[in-house]
Amino acid sequence: MTRCMRYVLAAALVLGAATAGASAEDAALGPSADDRAPYTTERDVHLFTIQKDGSVEEHDDSVLRANTMSGVDDIAQRYVWFNRDIEHVQLVAAETIDPDGASHAVGPEAIRDIQEPRSAGAPSFQDGVLRTVIFPGVEPGSRVHLAFRKTRAKPLQAGTFAYLVEPTREPVDDQRLIFDLPADVPLYADARSYTALPPVTANGRTRYEFRYTHGPYARLEAGAVGYANWGDRLMVSTVPDFATFAARYRGPATDATFGDPAIVRLAQSLTARRRSA
Which residues constitute the domain of residue 2? Predict the structure, then answer.
């Protein structure tokens, strides 16, 4: 072994020992701020009370904790989406909870409605509104608590209900989704990593509950297929399959004026010259 090679080897051993020592020290100290998830969902409970005609009353109650300054940006402003044509939202609680437990309520000046700039859920165009809630004094270690009631008096499609939830890919300590339906209206579910509890039937209604918890998520690979195609999700519906859904959608979506005699005559007159040519 040459002198140069001995120097290189010695340097590598010293560097390796230093790196190992640093790794052991880092492990003892726990994850750094850069390694922590920006925020954690400590509690997220959704209760949907669904009637046979498809009308729904939804109660949501969630607590998010900011772990880093990036997480402060993520949770200090939250949104409640609703369709203004058929839904009404009432905030029940909105507060910032300091690391020491002190609570600061969100004032009315920090709650505002913003018209959504695009139509969500096409091909069913909706008058989407974002109720924006801005939480005061959020810092790392703070929690934001938001609870609201959303009432849908008129269903998008009569006699049906459907809901889809996908994780935000931040750690979840406890998430529960509860669906309360008439006992003679079955609920069909496509659940990936969501745990279904046995349905409970009483007083003419059946309650379905799904639970979800997840630690830190692995980073997505560049160019990977979209997470929605293979990742965790919960999709529930009172419609048993896509063929039934298509049949239900096809009827209301049909143009009622398609066979109107006046429109048929006008179309024929406009295209007569082209047909004769």
Answer: 1-30
